[in-house]
UniProtKB/TrEMBL annotation:
InterPro entries according to UniProt: DUF2809 (IPR021257)
Transmembrane segments: 7-26, 32-49, 56-74, 94-117
Protein's UniProt keywords contain Protein transport: no
Keyword field: Membrane, Transmembrane, Transmembrane helix
Species of the source: Winogradskyella litorisediminis
Protein name: DUF2809 domain-containing protein
Keyword Nucleotidyltransferase: no
Domain of life: Bacteria
Amino acid sequence: MKLKLNINYLAFATAVFVVEVCIATFLKSGFIRHTFGDYLVVFLLYYCIRGLSSLGVWRSAILVLIISFLIEFLQLTTVLEVFNLDNNTLAKLIFGTSFQFMDLMAYTAGIITILFIETNHPKYKK
C-alpha cells in the first residue's frame, strides 16, 4: 500500500465527517444517531482510506469492514478501562460503549452500499 492522495475521496470524507459530527452533537438517541451514524461511519473510513492510499475498492472495503467489526467486538471487553479511557468522552464516542448486533448489520449494509456505488460507477463500465 502506497500513500496516494485523492482529493475527491478526501472531500467526501470531510463531508461525511461533518454529517457525523452534526449527528453526534444534535441527536442524542434514535435511529439516525444509533443506526444511521454507524452506517455512515464506514463511508467515512472508506473515503479516508481511498483518499490517502493506493488500495483498490475491494481491499479498502474489506479493510474497513474488518476495522469496524474489530472495534465493535472490542466493546465486549474492558479495553477503554485498560487504557484508562473509560471516562474520556471522545474515546467513548469513537469506540462506543456497548456491543450491538445491529451495529454490525449497519456496517455491513454500508459496505454493501459502497461496493454497489463503486462497482457501478461509470469509470468501471467499459
